[in-house]
Design goal:
The chain has about 200 residues and is mainly β. It has helices at about 5-30, 200, and strands at about 35, 45, 50-55, 65-75, 80-85, 90, 95-105, 115-120, 130-135, 140, 150-160, 165-180, 180-195. The protein has two domains: about 1-30; about 35-200. The protein contains two helices and 13 strands, in the order H-E-E-E-E-E-E-E-E-E-E-E-E-E-H. It is globular and about 45 Å long.
């Protein structure tokens, strides 16, 4: 019986492993991300159905704003890594996206979640924590943890006004991966700068 050298088996094992990785990569490329509503996938915001709107008034001497929303895990043991954030639908052309960052912090009387605040990046008096880039950020905080001092993850989106048309995001899409699969969390949250594009909503 012919004995094959040990390196032969190592090489075959490596080749098989590379083949499996390529198959998984190709499968992820072929199948589109699974879109789901809030509370229906690994990552959530309110962890259930609902709708929120924040429309800021550009009449004051401000040209940019930060909008905040929670991100959390529906199953605390399941990881979720953010890939990108964008609008479900853009409304109007009188605004521009200034950026998006994420923070994880422990709430306190001096450091609380925000709904919205003038300025982007947000003033340190409102957001004193270290802010991280969106891409590659791993959400670790569970939705079910109701303790007031439990760690909290907050997505912060910056929008700026361009002209009197205004507009903004009609819904927020959070692209992420979890357990090797791609998802899109669709958050029913409107982030608007008041203007002619959305007069009815701002009346």
């Amino acid at each position: 019986m012919t004995m094959r050298p040990r390196w032969h088996f190592v090489a075959v094992s490596i080749a098989l492993l590379i083949g499996v990785v390529l198959v998984l990569h190709n499968a992820a490329s072929v199948y589109p991300p699974q879109r789901h509503a809030d509370g229906a996938g690994p990552l959530a915001s309110r962890d259930g159905p609902g709708h929120e709107m924040l429309a800021v008034d550009p009449a004051r001497d401000t040209t940019s704003w930060t909008y905040g929303m929670r991100l959390c895990l529906t199953n605390g043991s399941t990881e979720a890594t953010i890939e990108s954030v964008g609008p479900t639908r853009s409304v109007g052309d009188g605004f521009r996206q200034l950026g998006a960052v994420i923070r994880e912090f422990t709430p306190s009387p001096m450091d609380t979640p925000i709904i919205g605040v003038a300025g982007y990046p947000p003033p340190s008096s409102f957001v004193p924590d270290t802010m991280s880039a969106v891409r590659g950020f791993e959400v670790r905080t569970p939705c079910a943890d109701a303790e007031p001092d439990a760690p909290y993850t907050e997505l912060l989106v910056g929008l700026g006004i361009v002209n009197e048309v205004g507009g903004g995001w009609d819904g927020v899409d959070v692209h992420y991966t979890s357990q090797g699969r791609a998802f899109v969390l669709s958050v029913q949250q409107q982030l608007f700068i008041c203007g002619t594009a959305i007069e009815a909503k701002c009346a």
